[in-house]
Amino acid sequence: MNLLLLAGGSSSRFYPLKEKNTYEFLGVSVVEYQLKRYINFLQPNKVVIIVNAKIEEEIKELVQNSNISADVVVQEGDGMAGAAQTGLSYLDPEDELIVANMNDFFDDSLFAKFLELKSSGSKRNLVTGLKTKTYFPGGYLVLDDESNVIGVEEKPGEGNEHSSEYVRFVFDYFMKAGDFSRALDEASSNKDDVYEVAQSILMAEKAFELLEYQQEWRSIKYPWHVLEVMELFLSKLEGETIADNVQIAENVTIKGDVIIESGVKIFEGAVIRGPAYIGKNTIIGNGALVRNSMIGNNSVVGFATEVSRSYVGNDTWFHKNYIGDSIIEHNVSFGSNAVTANLRLDEDEIYAMVKGEKIPTGTTKLGTIVGSNTRIGVGAMIMPGVKIGSDSVVGPMVVVQKDISAGVFLKTVQETVERENKISITDKNRDEYSSKL
């Protein structure tokens, strides 16, 4: 059996963040984490990873660091179909094949159920269906009376999903890779669904069984999905794991499930409330609070800063800030008293602009999303769901109410008036005020 991992998208909807497949959770990149999981459970004969040209070298380096043998191949053609065809040309058409998305995260029980079906002697292709209770804007599996998958109903709309209660996600098993390759050659569509059309062609010829899945599933598509995946990783922490050379001052509170990496310094009065992850050589300053968050390496959570339910990258500095439900990438600095707003005044769902389209985020709490190499001035206020591009500067006291492109300097221009002072200060006595303190 061979494994084809798809990581070839451009991550254009992930703006202002960088490539989603190289993101780190608990100090491990998505690529390394997924490779080790798939190989541990499936033990494939060959692994092919499809990437876009921009990240080819970075992915190759991550694969090499993981000491895993895998071919990293640049995608040719468009969409998932193009990615799959690119990978299939490197695989034996007679071999069994699993196709999966690199940035889909699910419970290990799916591997166990797949292997159980395989060991039972099943001789059918498999399509994974996520059992849903509420509408999801995806492809719904069409089943016959014997629970064979006979088609996919793409985004039928809420209330119109008559096919089944199973939404497909990409963990597809083919008895012969060559069958799927042939179907891809035959498939055509005016939409970006050639992969699904090819599956439907094959379903008309070959038996497909439902691989049912009912546990948690997360996928990274939009930037705020980083917080959902972070939450999934944090939920798996158990107990305290604190490196030997961590420096912890007196009167520090550490509660819950935490990982604190080597070289971390935690100063007096700081509170770390798990689940939480603190990366290597990071400093948690006096009176700081970190809860339900991941902090990267070499960062500083300075005096009186609160970081809640947020993802923070490497080399990022805070000083007396509130960072709530936010994603802050690498080499970002927040000046004193700069804050993120994470809740609308009407407490309604937060929307974000993605490629000119207003997209619901599915949450009522979302702070800011800041790209790398950015500086936020003292006293700046960033409104819920606002995205700030990389290599940008937000000046002091600016209220940021809409997205900022990469490479922008944003400032507020105000008028300063200078005139003669007619207020006498010397005859003012504050004894009366003092007596009431």
Automatic annotation (TrEMBL):
Residues 4-217 form the Nucleotidyl transferase domain. SUPFAM superfamilies: Nucleotide-diphospho-sugar transferases, Trimeric LpxA-like enzymes. One of its GO terms (molecular function) is UDP-N-acetylglucosamine diphosphorylase activity. This is NTP transferase domain-containing protein. InterPro entries: GlmU-like, Hexapep, Hexapep_transf_CS, NTP_transferase_dom, Nucleotide-diphossugar_trans, Trimer_LpxA-like_sf. Pathway: Nucleotide-sugar biosynthesis; UDP-N-acetyl-alpha-D-glucosamine biosynthesis; UDP-N-acetyl-alpha-D-glucosamine from N-acetyl-alpha-D-glucosamine 1-phosphate: step 1/1; Nucleotide-sugar biosynthesis; UDP-N-acetyl-alpha-D-glucosamine biosynthesis; N-acetyl-alpha-D-glucosamine 1-phosphate from alpha-D-glucosamine 6-phosphate (route II): step 2/2. It catalyses: alpha-D-glucosamine 1-phosphate + acetyl-CoA = N-acetyl-alpha-D-glucosamine 1-phosphate + CoA + H(+); N-acetyl-alpha-D-glucosamine 1-phosphate + UTP + H(+) = UDP-N-acetyl-alpha-D-glucosamine + diphosphate. The keyword Protein transport does not apply. It comes from Candidatus Dojkabacteria bacterium. In the N-terminal section; belongs to the N-acetylglucosamine-1-phosphate uridyltransferase family. Keywords: Acyltransferase, Multifunctional enzyme, Nucleotidyltransferase, Repeat, Transferase.
